[in-house]
Amino acid sequence: MVSVTALRDAQDVIIGYLLIGTELKAGALQSAIFNSANFSSIATDAKGVIQIFNVGAERMLGYTAAEVMNKITPADISDPRELIARAKSLSAELATPITPGFEALVFKASRGIEDIYELTYIRKDGSRFPAVVSVTALRDAQDVIIGYLLIGTDNTARKLVEEEQKKSDQRLRDQQFYTRSLIEANIDAIMTTDPSGIITDVNKQMEALTDCTRDELIGAPFKSYFTDPERAEAAIKLVLSEKSVTDYELTARARDGKQTVVSYNATTFYDRNRTLQGVFAAARDVTERKRVEAELQQAKAAAESASRTKSEFLASMSHEIRTPMNAIMGIADLLAKTALSPEQDKYVQIFRRAGDNLLNLINDILDLSKVEASQLELEQTGFSLHDHLEKVMEMVATRANEKGLALVCEIAPGVPNDLVGDPTRLRQVLLNLLGNAIKFTESGEVSLRVTQDGNFAVPTALRFAVSDTGIGIPSQKLGQVFERFTQADSSTTRRFGGSGLGLTISRRLVELMGGRIWVESGVGKGSVFSFAAPFEIWPTTNRPTLITVGVDPEAQLPALRILLAEDSADNCTITMAYLEDTPYQVEIAETGAIACEKFTSGHYDLVLMDRQMPVMDGLTAARSIRAWEQANDRQPTPIIALTASALKGDREMCLAAGCTAFLTKPIKQEVLLQAIKERSQIAPPIVKDESSRTDAAVARLNTKFAVRIPAYLLNCRQNVNFILDALDRVDLETVTILGHQMSGSGGMFGFQEITDISAALEEAAQNADIETSRKWVSELSSYLDRVDTISGYPL
Fold it and tell me: Is residue 326 within 8 Å of residue 571, measured between CB atoms?
């Protein structure tokens, strides 16, 4: 009797057969089979007790043959739950009760039925692995079952492959579902076509757009669902040639005739072999967008029209107000210089202040309008910080003196003096902040301090801080002070006046400079308004070499011949009065045409040109004069434009017409005189050799401070004695305070060296360096001894 068992590999493919005779004789072939490590061979007796346990079984299950032979059955190393399940299944299949255990493993084989099944073996260490088992009944010569042979192979690898395949199949199904969900959830109508333009798939939005079902659309020509089939077909051809198309406008047509404007976007797609499959396209309904765009375009046109109207209105009102203001303020200034009774002088001063306030309001409104309309552009020009701040402090000094306030300006050591930026707008911000500080301070001090900002990202940024000892601002109002037409309290406006535009304009200007502005304040504790802005350093090699005549107040003014082109008799009267005490000879031309005739027939050193005049306006006249000069090989004569227009582009238009400078009405006397002086340039004087210089220090100063120089220098010499005494007592706090005071005042009086030495002295005292402090005190004393003054005026 021979028992035949099929031998299978991990993929369940038959790789051979095992034929076993009833009498197991120890032959070489049998020995090779039972000692094979590639599969387990377990032979039992009729009751299932293991009699043979080969090397393969030992390797797979971790038992030695001695541990299992004549002791256990194969059921003892199988998953008991699977045995129960197999017994139940076989009982139902064969309609006979089968006991869970070894009987369930060999029942089919005992009936002569080939039985190959999967089960889970349990190793000695408790781990499990899947196995494919082939069971054969072993019989004697009388066909009586004397045992069973179970040949098993480890099915782990095949199971892993099957599991991975299941996971891969599931991932594919999930990806297909996810992709389909994305397509269906898209707000656009999605479709794919083959290269010839036949629809191969669509989503729900495409069904809604065309009012057709998916089955109706698939297989139909793409172009059939648009009002312009040729344009639709051209879209397919375009995407095939260009690989993609964006914002291609088409009009879709539904079954019921409804038309929808869509933005068609498409690209080609390929299989894994990079073979062209067709076109993937999305059509978005842009009907609403086009409606909104049309409305926005209409609104933009209306806004631009309103902006033009506003600009024209501002230009007109600016001119119409400034023209009579020029006469009003000019006459007020001239009247103030005549002999007046105290009462008359009081009224004139009220007259002048009201005019200044009105002019400031006009300028504020125009500035705010230009900033909000992005029409205000910053200049980039070189300037001296010290000179600039000196002029600013001069402009506010009178108001501070009237209220008895101390006015301090300090520049920290290390702050560069030569800068590039917009000095005019910087001055405007500083005047706004200083003006407010003086306005809201009844007693104490108003100070301006300049330091480096400390922002490492912008190393050239400077910080300006204006502090006062005034009424202060409530904390809940701090966030509103930079809003237009806003002050901390409505009563503030009634008490102190003002339009509430100054801080708004200051904030916008600082932001335009690329900086930031903020405030710290408390009621009754004063306020500190600070702003930081970046500036470039102005190389000294690029500074101009020409100097202006008239800087020295004692210098004699040249006898210039000036042509005044002005049609307003009042303005002529004011201008002539402004120039009355000068050696200037002035001739008047009532129109631009007369100005051109006079200029070409005479000789003039300078022209004052009004912009708006009858017959020929000032810009046309300026262009004519420049053309005549060029044709006759004449050097350009300075032309100063006088205009009541102050909006964006006015200055540029004047300069483009050939004007040398631009003054806005109303024009103050000192501004006009300074402009004339600045346009009269000569070469700089030859500098004497260093060996010819005297030891005396020379200090140049504005005449407004000249009378105070002797007292100031005397105070500095007294401070030197106080400092020496403080150093003897190691009172460095006093040294620091006095050094700080003189470093802030020296430059204001024209003694920059006093400022520099005192700043170094202050720093040495702060560092508790007594030796260096004595050195700087000695340097300061030596400098003061070298300063010569005559009648209180420095040489």
Answer: yes
SS3 510: helix
Residue 45, token pair as written in the block: 């007796």
With bands split at pLDDT 50, 70 and 90, how would you rate the model's confidence at 608? Answer: very high
What SS3 state is found at 567? coil
What would the pLDDT profile of 695-746 be if each residue is shown by its tens digit?
333 333 334 345 556 766 887 888 888 898 888 888 888 888 787 667 655 6
Q: For residue 542, give both structure tokens.
A: 């690029």
Name 91's Cβ contacts closer than 8 Å, sequence gap at least 6. 97, 98
Q: Which residue has the tokens 């601002």?
A: 473
Residues 413-440 pLDDT 10s: 989 988 888 888 898 899 889 988 998 8
**Distance (Å, whole) CA 462 – CA 353:** 33
Choice between 695 and 128, residue whose per-residue pLDDT is larger: 128
Give the distance, in angstroms, between the CA of residue 786 and the centroid of all CA atoms in the same chain: 54
CA distances from 485 to 361, 482, 498 (A): 11, 9, 9
Give the orientation angle of helix 423-439 with respect to helix 385-402, to 10 degrees: 20
Which SS3 state, helix, strand or coil, does residue 119 take? strand
- Residue 164: CB partners within 8 Å, gap ≥ 6? none
Q: Torsions phi, psi of 710, nearest 5? A: -55, -45
Provide the whole-model pTM.
0.38
Strands 461-468 and 445-452: antiparallel
| CB neighbour class for 246 (10 Å; exposed up to 12, middle 13-18, buried from 19) | exposed
Task: pLDDT band for 643, please (50, 70, 90 cuts).
Answer: confident
Q: Minimal CA–CA distance to 364: which of 435, 428, 313? A: 428
Q: Both tokens of residue 29?
A: 């072939």
Q: Which H or E element spans position 428?
A: helix 423-439
CB 154 within 8 A of CB 129: yes
8 Å CB contact between 374 and 512:
no
Q: What percent of the chain has pLDDT over 90?
A: 22
**Alpha helix ranges (H) inside 14-110:** 28-34, 55-61, 65-68, 80-94, 102-110
Residues 483-486: contacts with CB under 8 Å, at least 24 apart? 484/368
